[in-house]
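Re: beginner question about structure tokens

> Can someone show what the tokenized structure looks like for a real chain? I only ever see the sequence side.

Sure, here's an example I had lying around. Input first:
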Amino acid sequence: MDKIPMTRKGHTDLEAELKQLKSVERPAIIKAIAEAREHGDLSENAEYHSAREKQSFIEGRIKELEGVLGLAEVIDPSKMSGTIKFGATVTLVDEDTDEEKTWQIVGEHEANIEKGLLNIKSPIARALIGKDEGDSVEVRTPGGEKSYEVLKIVYA
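And the corresponding structure tokens:
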């Protein structure tokens, strides 16, 4: 199995989610299933079926998180410098609209575009890897071709 690159913050966030699922969500759903069982006939008990479905989701997410965390390779971006690579916080300007965007390139399990966390496997991140400040980048996105200029690279 390949290692999964991840920032320290991403790793900490996933560990916190796993702890929440194991110590709060799992016991709560077990209790809900026990209460639903007390209502009698399980074949027509919507509360029971809903609780079992939620339990299945929680157990699946726990297994997924344990697998990801087991393969995680925590990378500290503050020890890096130079051209764009994993962990870089990059400020770009859209060459067509002059709109500035700032993203941090992170692992796929911590990516969240609304929070400015860009998946390392995304077309934009792949196009940025190895570029330097002042470079122009052509990116083929589902919405068509985009051109960006790299304004700033920060490793923090």
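Each token stands for a local structural state, so reading them left to right follows the chain. Strands lie at 4-7, 72-75, 89-94, 100-106, 117-119, 136-141, 144-154.
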